[in-house]
Amino acid sequence: MEDSSVSSSVDVDKGFAIAFVVLLFLFLIVMIFRCAKLVKNPYKASSTTTEPSLS
């Protein structure tokens, strides 16, 4: 016989699903802020490329 209190309190699949959704929302929030910064000031935000200066 299976102990119902142990199986109902420990649901590994549900835990993985909740963790995946939380990480997905964190990633989405980070991408929203990065895109907002890029839209606000595209030249300063994309300064990772090292282009030679004209002066």
TrEMBL record:
One Pfam family here: Cortexin
Transmembrane segment boundaries: 15-36
Record localization: Membrane
Domain of life, source organism: Eukaryota
UniProt keyword Membrane present: yes
Keywords: Membrane, Transmembrane, Transmembrane helix
Membrane topology listed for this record: Single-pass membrane protein
Recorded GO CC terms: membrane
PANTHER family listed in its UniProt record: CORTEXIN DOMAIN CONTAINING 2, CORTEXIN-1-RELATED
Identification of the protein by name: Cortexin domain containing 2
Organism: Cebus imitator
Gene: CTXND2
